[in-house]
Give the backbone structure.
Amino acid sequence: MIGGGLAGIVAALDCADAGAQVTLLEVRRRLGGAVYSFERDGLQIDNGQHVFMRCCAAYQALLERLGSEHRVSVQPRLRVPVLRPGSRMALLARNALPAPLHMAGALARYPHLTISQRLGAARSAFALARMDLRDAALDRLTFGDWLAHRGQGPDAVSALWDVIVRPTLNLPAAEASLALGAFVFRTALLSHADAGDIGFHSAALSETIGEPAERALSGAGVAVRLGWRAERLQRTATGIEVHGRGGRSGEEEESRGEWGTAAGEGREGEGWSAEVAIVAMPHNRVGALIEPLLGDAARRLGALGSSPIVNLHVVYDRPVCEQPFAAGVGTPVQYLFDRTAAAGVPPDCQYLAVSLSAAEREMGMSVDALRECYLPALQELLPRARGANLERFLVTREHAATFRAAPGVAASRAAARTSVPGLVLAGTWTDTGWPATLEGAVLSGHAAAIRALERIEIETRGWSMASTATAEAL
C-alpha cells in the first residue's frame, strides 16, 4: 500500500480485515493525506474545511471503523445561512416534504434571486432530476453553459448555483463539468430529502482521522511505515517490487511551509515485494511513479489538472459571528466556519476559517494582500467584526487540492484495475463517479481493495454487503 490518505487507509483496513498481510508506506510523518491538522501559534488548525453530507455513507462508516463518529455532527435538517453585504441573512433550508419539493419553500423565499430567476432555478432543478447521468455527452459541456441555456444568467449562478458547485467541485459552474455538477445536485439535493444535510468535524482533523487511523491499522495488523518515499515500481514474476527510501521526507505539507527530516522506518535503497501494490498517491504525483509500468495510461493522468484551495484563519478578540458556518454572496468570502472550540481558542474570542475554493487568484496573493482584501470583506458581512481587534491572521494553501473537475475530465480518470497484474490504483482522482470529496476517496479505497483481493484470491464475503456492492459498482 503506497499512500496513507483516506483511500490508502480504507484499502489497507479492508485488505487486512479480509486476511491479507499489509504494509502501508507513507512519505509523510502522519496519516490522513489531504485531510490533516497541525499546530501553529498555539492553534489546532485544519488544513481545510472538509465537510460531508448525510448521503456520504461510506465516509461515515469509516469514521465508525476508526471510532471517530463522536467527533462529527450532522445537521438535523439542511440549513445554509447565506450572508450578503448590506442584506439580512438568508437561509437555504429544507422542509419536511419529499425531494425535490423539500427545497421549494427556501427557493421561493430566497431574496438574492428575482422572481423570474427563482422560477428558472426551479425548472432547472427539475430538469437535473430527470437527467440521465450515464450520458457521456454531459461531460463535454460546462454546467454554466447548461444553466445559461435555461435562463440562469451570471447573477443567478453566482447567487445560488455556485454556492453549491464551487465548494463541491472546486470550480465555479462556468468552468465545471455538467456531468459532475449534475451528479452533485442529483445526489445531494434532488434524490432524497435528507441527503444534503451537512456534516461537520467538531474536533481537529488529525484527532478525527490521522491518529485514530494509526491505532486502527495497528490493531488490524497493518505494518505502517511513515517517512518512507516510494521512488520506483518494478514488475516481478510474483507481483510488484517497490523501491524507495526512508529518512528525508520531501512531501511535508506545503501549507505549513515546512521541509524536515522524517522519522523514517526504511533505509535508503530498501525494497518491498508484494503480490499486489495499491498506489493511493495524490493525482499530481502518482504519474511519475506508475509511468514506467503503465506508459501512456499514466501520462493521460496529466490531463486531470489541478484546482487550488486557500484557507484564511482569522482570530478576533471577541465573538463576531453567531452562525456555526455561512456562505457568502456578493463578496469574496465564499464560506466561513466557526472553529473556535475545535482549535482550542478561548470562548471569549472567535476563530473563523474562511474557505476559498478554485482559488487561482488567491494562490498568487501575499499574506498582506489577502489580509487587505478579506478583512474589510468580513467586516461588510459581520458588523461585529468592525469593532473587534484582530488577534491572528494565518493563511494555508493547497496548490493541487483536487483534480480539475472541468469538461472532459471523465476520460482522464483511471480505473482501480490496471493493465499490469498486481498494480491497483486508488484516490479521489480514480473513476469513482464522485468529485474529489471525502466520500470519493473512501469509495476508491474500497474498490481498490476488492481488486487487490481478487488478485490474491481472497474472498470478501466477510465484509458488509452494502460496502462491497457500493465499491463493485464503481
